[in-house]
């Protein structure tokens, strides 16, 4: 049997072979083994959906998700397995110091979740966030989940549940830190996303809640662009997967994050010539933070289009949009190798990522404003002291010779990128 190159292709074949949709409609769920999944593609790759954006179209279209229930089997059903992050843009960034004696960890080059956790520990970010005494690392790595049962909301907006039984599924804990009063279990990511898989907090929580008699605190940490975003959650009912609630969140940085409006004005006033518009589709990528995050991910190694789509918080369309955005600014390169499209950082992209936080952001600002369409938008923003309208933005775009934009509807859709990126620039001065 031929192996599939993508999750999308493999799940399509599995759904057809085992009549999965029909079984779910009749029974409410479908149980599938790793052996069955492996017929078309490795189960480890086929079931790793850390964010809802990673789900194949078949799952999205039918409001399905998948959860492990043993060490080698899974349940597919209509249930709500993801939790959206609550917005915290206005939250103050807490400045922390890096110990001078540490030489083996470079906080300017944090390229993995493990390094982010180590950095958060030695700088006492975790101690500050948890308000714990004598905090020490105790557990991490892969282990069995133990046996437990729970209910989970159906993915249909109704107060209906699916009952799930877990029997020693495999879990992985990125970091466990115990203090005098509690045990914190940390799930760490270096990918920015809109939501996360609750299972990554819930299964470890259920395991260790049954093992110790002090509180267990589920912690989710996202590191990107020099900022540690730390979230604490709780489960109001231990036997209800869907009872997750945010307790608190904080942002931390080791570096100076103070950027003044004068810094932006200085760049603006010193731009004397514009970058020639590249023959690349004008970006449709509203979040500049995610453009930066994609560059950080590519700094580890070049990645194919499929790898970006399947492993990070992008669907296939977003992969195109955000890689094009990086190429538009000269941060990302694209080439075809052995039938695969491969993306990598350019020399410019690598140089910028090596800069300290403040200078790094200002270099991104400079790259953006070197494009006349963004410069003219910011100029109008400054003159009016408010965001230009979509109509004004489209007028600016039409005067800037953008590549391959022909319809009025496309102008309007792509205008959101200009508004989003300039708002990112302005927000730098409010952190």
Task: Note down, in words, how this protein is organized.
The protein is α+β, with helices and mostly antiparallel strands. The chain has three domains: 7-78; 84-149 and 163-253, Trna Endonuclease, Chain: A, domain 1, CATH 3.40.1350; 261-428, Winged helix-like DNA-binding domain superfamily/Winged helix DNA-binding domain (Arc Repressor Mutant, subunit A). It is 38% helix and 25% strand. The chain has helices at residues 7-17, 20-27, 34-37, 43-46, 57-61, 113-122, 125-130, 199-209, 261-269, 288-298, 305-311, 316-328, 347-353, 357-369, 372-384, 390-398, 408-428, and strands spanning 29-33, 65-70, 73-77, 82-84, 93-95, 136-144, 147-153, 161-167, 170-178, 183-189, 195-197, 216-224, 227-235, 244-253, 303-304, 332-337, 340-345. A seven-stranded mixed β-sheet has the order 5-14-13-12-10-9-6. A three-stranded antiparallel β-sheet has the order 1-3-2. A three-stranded antiparallel β-sheet has the order 15-17-16. Helix 11 crosses helix 12 and helix 15 (372-384) crosses helix 17 (408-428). It starts with 6 loop residues before the first helix and ends with a helix. 35% of the residues are buried.
Key terms:
431 residues; alpha+beta; Trna Endonuclease, Chain: A, domain 1; Arc Repressor Mutant, subunit A; 3 domains; seven-stranded mixed beta sheet; 17 helices; globular
Note the topology:
Layout: H1 7-17, H2 20-27, E1 29-33, H3 34-37, H4 43-46, H5 57-61, E2 65-70, E3 73-77, E4 82-84, E5 93-95, H6 113-122, H7 125-130, E6 136-144, E7 147-153, E8 161-167, E9 170-178, E10 183-189, E11 195-197, H8 199-209, E12 216-224, E13 227-235, E14 244-253, H9 261-269, H10 288-298, E15 303-304, H11 305-311, H12 316-328, E16 332-337, E17 340-345, H13 347-353, H14 357-369, H15 372-384, H16 390-398, H17 408-428
Parallel strand pairs: 5-14, 10-12
Antiparallel strand pairs: 1-3, 2-3, 4-11, 6-9, 7-8, 9-10, 12-13, 13-14, 15-17, 16-17
Helix pairs in contact: 9-14, 10-12, 11-12, 15-17, 16-17
